[in-house]
């Protein structure tokens, strides 16, 4: 799990960082239209993410789980046949989703016609992303996480390059319309997707010997039609479950403007600025740490599927405990770290803004239940408990809708994040209760370790926050370059403190085993 998560985390965080770093020049070139551009970008991308999940999200997870299951049964020929059948499903899903996005853009614009060309430009990426996702799932089913991670990073790299070049050309060279720059920036998703596909095709050739091992030893094949139906059937719960966070974001998109207008006399410009603060500005940054949870989730599904195929209940219980600890060990200090450096990181990526910084600080804490949902949902799917997970998600969505109006009424721009946090906490409680009732998973077994993680993270956050206050005092806190220097020092100090504590008090041993001792020897920690 650690090895697979390392690859997936590297690819996911690398691509997320690129996806966040580009905003520094991009926002600068947008000038006075930056928050409006962020709002338009976010509205288009939320719709794109939903269609992307419908067209892809369920398929790689389903393929990954089924391939791991068949390989566990040593039915390698069926794994390959499943992959080819999955490609047919992917092609069909891509065509249907792209067509609906183009034909139905006017019905999804939320009353803003500027969103239509953005949705249309993103349809091209949806066309080929299912093929990419099936191939990634195929590799993950074999435990080969590197091709997925590298293609993910490559996809983001070329997307960002195209975005920056085209935005600079439109805004700085020809002094064009910022709305056209946003549309071209979203079209960059297709450029990135195509480059990611090329990487995967190269990987199929490179790893062909591993992928072909044992294929001739088993000729037990199902019909292509039967396997296609199986992929679709397996992927439907995945689609809904993995779209959980996106569904929450769409609820925000289609309710925030209306609820704010109900209780406030506010201009369209101001509404777009508020929406951009939590849906784009903060989202870009806290989704970097949620991508860690996504990486763990992608790794745990095939592991649990293989254990389930062997009916290995004891090791399933162990893996559930391991995945909770791994999540908390990484996510708690990361979330508190983001809270500690919120002022600096927000100033670097956008510009100094009191409200924007407070939204980011609040978002750092909301990232924890969101990330835990991602991991726990993956565990449920790996255990083939998708129907139960779907039930919990529907409860969460209902709670989100119930709390949305009062949260926005009382807390305005913080409201959507608050209602999301409340509903996700309830969903996570229900999942953990399910683990307790069915797999003998008790939080009390790992409570001592959790307390150490929280304590060390709080110590790290306290010293980091105070260190920043100390070095900030003689400087101009509004300056982006000074904020960047402070951020680098703060991240370094925070990382060193947490690393020292987890090694000194043997917490790391519970996560990475004997390698912790080697680290202590290298760093001369006794």
Brief write-up:
The chain has 526 residues and is an all-alpha fold.
Describe this entry's structure for a reader.
With 526 residues, this protein is an all-alpha fold. The chain starts with a helix and ends with a helix. It is built from 20 helices and no strands. It has one domain. Helix 3 packs antiparallel against helix 10 and helix 3 packs parallel to helix 11.
Q: Characterize the overall form.
A: globular
- Radius of gyration over all CA atoms, rounded: 23 Å
How much β-strand is present in the residues? under 5%
User: Strand-and-helix sequence, N→C?
Assistant: HHHHHHHHHHHHHHHHHHHH
Give the biggest beta sheet. Answer: none
| Oligomeric state | single chain
Protein name: Polysaccharide biosynthesis protein
Membrane topology: Multi-pass membrane protein
Subcellular location: Cell membrane
Organism: Limosilactobacillus albertensis
Present the secondary structure layout.
Elements: H1 2-21, H2 23-30, H3 34-72, H4 76-103, H5 115-141, H6 146-173, H7 178-206, H8 208-212, H9 224-242, H10 244-263, H11 268-309, H12 313-340, H13 342-349, H14 354-382, H15 386-411, H16 415-439, H17 443-472, H18 480-504, H19 509-512, H20 515-523
Task: Please describe the structure with a list of short key phrases separated by commas or semicolons.
526 residues, cell membrane, mainly alpha, Polysaccharide biosynthesis protein, transmembrane, PG_synth_SpoVB, Polysacc_synth
């Amino acid at each position: 799990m650690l090895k697979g998560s390392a690859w997936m985390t590297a690819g996911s965080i690398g691509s997320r960082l690129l996806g966040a770093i580009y905003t520094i020049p991009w926002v600068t070139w947008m000038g006075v239209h930056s928050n409006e551009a962020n709002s338009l970008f976010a509205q288009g991308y939320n719709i794109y993410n939903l269609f992307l999940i419908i067209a892809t999200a369920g398929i790689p997870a389903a393929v990954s789980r089924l391939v791991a299951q068949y390989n566990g049964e040593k039915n390698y020929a069926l794994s390959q046949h499943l992959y080819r059948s999955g490609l047919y499903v992917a092609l069909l899903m891509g065509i249907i989703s792209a067509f609906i996005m183009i034909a139905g853009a006017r019905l999804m614009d939320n009353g803003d016609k500027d969103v239509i060309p953005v949705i249309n430009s993103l349809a091209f990426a949806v066309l080929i992303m299912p093929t990419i996702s099936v191939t990634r799932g195929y590799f993950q089913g074999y435990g080969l996480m590197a091709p997925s991670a590298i293609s993910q990073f490559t996809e983001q790299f070329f997307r960002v390059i195209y975005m920056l070049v085209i935005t600079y050309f439109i805004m700085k060279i020809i002094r064009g319309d910022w709305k056209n720059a946003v549309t071209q920036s979203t079209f960059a998703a297709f450029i990135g997707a195509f480059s990611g596909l090329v990487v995967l095709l190269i990987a199929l050739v490179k790893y062909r010997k591993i992928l072909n091992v044992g294929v001739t030893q088993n000729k037990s094949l199902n019909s292509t039609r039967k396997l296609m139906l199986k992929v679709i059937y397996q992927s439907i719960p995945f689609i809904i479950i993995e779209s959980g966070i996106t569904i929450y974001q769409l609820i925000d998109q289609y309710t925030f403007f209306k609820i704010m207008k109900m209780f406030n006399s506010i201009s369209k410009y101001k509404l777009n600025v508020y929406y951009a603060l939590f849906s784009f500005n903060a989202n870009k940054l806290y989704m970097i740490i949620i991508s860690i949870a996504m990486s763990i989730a992608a790794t745990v599904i095939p592991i649990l599927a293989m254990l389930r195929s062997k009916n290995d209940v004891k090791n399933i219980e162990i893996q559930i405990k391991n995945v909770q600890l791994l999540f908390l060990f990484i996510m708690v200090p990361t979330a508190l770290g983001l809270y500690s450096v919120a002022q600096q990181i927000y100033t670097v990526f956008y510009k100094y803004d009191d409200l924007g910084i407070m939204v980011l600080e609040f978002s750092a804490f909301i990232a924890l239940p969101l990330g835990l949902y991602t991991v726990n949902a993956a565990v449920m799917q790996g255990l083939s408990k998708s129907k139960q997970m779907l039930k919990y998600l529907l409860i969460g969505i209902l709670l989100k809708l119930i709390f949305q109006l009062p949260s926005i009424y009382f807390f305005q721009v913080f409201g959507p994040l608050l209602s999301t946090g409340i509903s996700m906490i309830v969903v996570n409680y229900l999942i953990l209760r399910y683990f307790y009732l069915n797999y003998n998973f008790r939080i009390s077994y790992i409570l001592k370790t959790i307390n150490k993680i929280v304590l060390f993270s709080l110590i790290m956050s306290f010293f980091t926050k105070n260190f920043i206050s100390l070095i900030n005092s003689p400087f101009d806190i509004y300056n982006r370059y000074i904020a960047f220097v402070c951020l680098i020092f703060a991240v370094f100090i925070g990382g060193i403190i947490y690393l020292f504590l987890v090694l000194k008090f043997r917490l790391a041993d519970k996560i990475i085993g004997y390698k912790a001792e080697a680290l202590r020897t290298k760093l001369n920690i006794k």
